[in-house]
Amino acid sequence: MIDSDDIEQMLDDLREFPGYLRELIAGCEDAILVRAAPDGGWGAVEVFCHLRDIEELYVERVGRILTEDEPFMPAVDESLWPIEREYDKQQPRVALDEFARQRSHFVELLNDLDAPRWHRRGHHAELGDQTVLWCAAHAAEHDATHRRQLEELLQHD
Predict the structure, then answer these.
(1) Cβ 82 vs Cβ 46: under 8 Å
(2) CA dihedral over 85, 147, 18, 20, signed as positive or negative
(3) What is the pLDDT of residues 71-118, one digit of tens each?
(4) Range from 1-15, 31-45, 47-61 carrying the lowest mean pLDDT
(5) Which terminus of the chain is more exposed, N or C, with fewer CB under 10 A?
(6) How far apart are CA 28 and CA 41, in angstroms?
(7) pLDDT beyond 70 at 1
(8) What phi, psi does 13 have (nearest 5°)?
(9) In a 10 Å sphere around its CB, with 0-12 CB exposed, 13-18 middle and 19+ buried, how is residue 81 labelled?
(10) Cα 20-25-30 angle, rounded to 5 deg
């Protein structure tokens, strides 16, 4: 069972991540942020677009879990989003700002939840039952993964 201090730390981490990303890219020119990774993988712009779009899913799903009784959440195949949504043509700082707005909304949903609301659940088509707490913890883990990815990507400059 996660305690209130752990939840507060997780909320702080979620709240602070967009600011950390802004600091990380503060001295970067846009040309650096839109180029692919050295291995041909995602550059910063694709990561920011991905974070924005996944955050939109978190907001939608947690909102449903908090307002509906055990909602069904279909699986989403985000693998085509970079192509369909043309991540490589988007402005990195705009995508980051949009992510920050979505994240602010997500944290607002989570603020001041009592224990029973943290444990409300929905059913994901592929992953099974997901609680609000699972979604928040998953978002924090997802942030950590992309934080490391961006740090590595931008350390080359």
Answers:
(1) yes
(2) negative
(3) 999 999 999 999 999 999 999 999 999 999 999 999 999 998 999 999
(4) 1-15
(5) N
(6) 19
(7) no
(8) -60, -45
(9) middle
(10) 150
